[in-house]
């Protein structure tokens, strides 16, 4: 099965409620979809979210880097040589992790189609049912409590609470949500780099004294502040997780060698796709550290790839934050992974299993070779 061309499209889905973090606020999931055509007429699907405040990637930038540098090296390659394909994708340019993720997803989808097997089985096999948490956007306390209530009614029993835009208000938000929902749910916090190290220790010690039990706190400080993460981890009981500080296998080794964090959040948009995500999961096992599989605000094509990986690497990946599709008003993708509230159900269709996509807007000059 030989690669013939790479095409691009856009896919936009409105959110149930605006997605607000310490870094940004958006009302739509907007994915760049990458379609890889083969000479035998198969199509591989991949997609990527543009999250410039975290990855630096934009849709225009992803299209340019793929068209000018990576697609010319992929066209003509055989899908059966999956390691050679991921090597080309990873090594042709530096950075550009979201563009690499979209391409890797599409070639892994085709690899599954070549061998007529679902991706999670080709990656080692696992369960077809997974469960995700859901994210509660940062807002005034009443709105956050209403969002938590709706999530519980939908069946979610793990809530990921976004905070980080005002230290004292954040402490009050967490206390209020803990009082209302700790009996029914497990609570994770995501500060999205909003605090500094001393503020984090202060906040977590206050919360610990008040009897607030948290499963983990994600990325409290700036992505570059590795010493800050270590300072916090040494002073609080609550487990600390790296997100924006952990893109590459090398960064993960540095974090774990230093004892800077307890847990790593793996996201395909940071690792550049599945191949490096697998490497990171294996590294965390070497350090007996836990890891989570997460997502950006992205739709069900890319999240399906992450779900296949989570199933196949369940021995390493113990926590799941794959709620992108649950945050959208509908899922435009038919076939493959089904997202229903907290439940994620993998199908045994080949690759990612995608049959069709509603509302896909093909980019007219977005094809290589032209
Ligand atoms: C959507 C997911 N649960 C999440 O919170 N992801 C990111 C933020 C992504 C974004 O801004 O698109 C995270 O920080 O974990
Ligand atoms: Mg995060």
From TrEMBL:
<dbReference type="InterPro" id="IPR029017">
    <property type="entry name" value="Enolase-like_N"/>
</dbReference>
<dbReference type="InterPro" id="IPR013342">
    <property type="entry name" value="Mandelate_racemase_C"/>
</dbReference>
<dbReference type="InterPro" id="IPR013341">
    <property type="entry name" value="Mandelate_racemase_N_dom"/>
</dbReference>
<dbReference type="Pfam" id="PF02746">
    <property type="entry name" value="MR_MLE_N"/>
</dbReference>
<dbReference type="InterPro" id="IPR036849">
    <property type="entry name" value="Enolase-like_C_sf"/>
</dbReference>
<feature type="domain" description="Mandelate racemase/muconate lactonizing enzyme C-terminal">
    <location>
        <begin position="141"/>
        <end position="239"/>
    </location>
</feature>
<dbReference type="InterPro" id="IPR034603">
    <property type="entry name" value="Dipeptide_epimerase"/>
</dbReference>
<dbReference type="Pfam" id="PF13378">
    <property type="entry name" value="MR_MLE_C"/>
</dbReference>
<keyword id="KW-0460">Magnesium</keyword>
<comment type="similarity">
    <text>Belongs to the mandelate racemase/muconate lactonizing enzyme family.</text>
</comment>
<protein>
    <submittedName>
        <fullName>Dipeptide epimerase</fullName>
    </submittedName>
</protein>
<dbReference type="InterPro" id="IPR029065">
    <property type="entry name" value="Enolase_C-like"/>
</dbReference>
<keyword id="KW-0479">Metal-binding</keyword>
<keyword id="KW-0413">Isomerase</keyword>
